[in-house]
Specification:
Blueprint: H1 3-35, H2 45-67
Transmembrane segments: 6-27, 48-68
Keywords: Membrane, Transmembrane, Transmembrane helix
């Protein structure tokens, strides 16, 4: 068995999963901060939250592209 390839795939999977979870949770947190009425000067939080959600969705769609063989023909 090729252990180096196994560890390489496991590492890439771990990094991708952590990235998607961190982007989504950061987007949720920034959305909560933007919805806070007392925090008026933070107008940059909502666009940054939507950017985090968009990057998370792009990562998921790229993962689906890699998994589904129909897209590779």
């Amino acid at each position: 068995m090729k252990w180096l390839e196994l560890f390489s795939v496991a590492g890439a999977t771990l990094v991708a999963a952590v990235t998607v979870v961190v982007l989504y949770s950061l987007g949720v947190r920034l959305t909560a901060i933007a919805g806070d009425v007392r925090n008026e000067p933070a107008s940059w939080t909502r666009p940054l939250a939507y950017t985090c959600f968009a990057l998370c969705g792009a990562a998921v769609l790229f993962g689906l592209y890699l998994i589904i063989p129909y897209f590779h023909k």
